[in-house]
């Protein structure tokens, strides 16, 4: 059985509508949560390379402090994407590093959170067997949607200024 293709260009209207309702800090929390679920693919293959993990720490620091430095955010994103390029082949590790690069970019542009989620789904797809790929991606998408709903509800109960 051949594995079905996974496209980063697919549109999930329900997810996109929920993303549009969320503030940047909520989306940053979500991007970290999505990426954390797949970062182990990168860390298992490249245990001495902390660039994707550092990207998540950079985003977490922005969430905690509210201090934004384009140079710091861009450097962390570019480093994580460089790590992905160095992987070379299309593997779960590469997708996980891309997810981290997109996640940290959420501090600059909120829409990057959706990129982090999509790359996380791509990592799940690449890690799954052909028989399990479609179901694994569907389960991940459902988790991501429910996680974002939960974070959105929390943010509207206790809004945090950005």
What does this structure look like?
The chain is mainly alpha-helical and 162 residues long. It has one domain. Helices cover 72% and strands 0% of the residues. The protein contains 8 helices and no strands. The chain has helices spanning 13-21, 24-36, 39-45, 51-65, 70-87, 92-105, 112-127, 133-157. Helix 1 (13-21) runs parallel beside helix 8 (133-157), helix 4 (51-65) packs parallel to helix 6 and helix 6 runs antiparallel to helix 7. The radius of gyration is 15 Å and the shape is globular. The model has no long low-confidence stretch (mean pLDDT 93).
Compile the SSE list and pairings.
Blueprint: H1 13-21, H2 24-36, H3 39-45, H4 51-65, H5 70-87, H6 92-105, H7 112-127, H8 133-157
Helix pairs in contact: 1-8, 2-4, 2-6, 2-7, 2-8, 3-6, 4-5, 4-6, 5-6, 6-7, 7-8
Overview in brief:
The chain is mostly helical and 162 residues long. Helix content is 72%, strand content 0%.
Which short descriptors sum up this protein?
162 residues; mainly alpha; 8 helices
Average per-residue pLDDT, rounded, comes to 93
Shape: globular
Oligomer: single chain
What series of H and E elements makes up the topology?
HHHHHHHH
Q: Give the beta-strand count.
A: 0
What structural category characterises the helix and strand content?
A: mainly alpha
Main beta-sheet strand count, sense and barrel state: none
**What is the total domain count?**
1
Which residues form runs of ≥5 with pLDDT under 50? none
Beta-strand residue fraction: under 5%
Percent of residues in helices comes to over 70%
**What Rg do the Cα atoms give?**
15 Å
- Straight-line N-to-C gap: 48 Å
């Amino acid at each position: 059985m051949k594995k079905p293709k996974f496209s980063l260009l697919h549109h999930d209207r329900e997810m996109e509508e929920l993303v549009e309702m969320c503030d940047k800090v909520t989306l940053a929390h979500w991007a970290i949560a999505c990426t954390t679920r797949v970062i182990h693919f990168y860390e298992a293959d490249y245990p001495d390379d902390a660039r994707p993990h550092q990207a998540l720490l950079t985003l977490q620091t922005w969430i905690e402090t509210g201090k934004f430095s384009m140079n710091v955010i861009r450097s962390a994103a570019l480093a994580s994407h460089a790590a992905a390029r160095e992987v070379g082949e299309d593997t779960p590790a590469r997708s996980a590093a891309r997810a981290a690069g997109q996640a940290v970019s959420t501090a600059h542009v909120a829409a990057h959170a959706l990129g982090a989620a999509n790359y996380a789904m791509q990592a799940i797809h690449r890690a799954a067997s052909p028989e399990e790929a479609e179901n694994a991606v569907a389960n991940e998408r459902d988790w991501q949607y429910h996680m974002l709903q939960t974070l959105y509800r929390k943010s509207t109960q206790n809004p945090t200024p950005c």
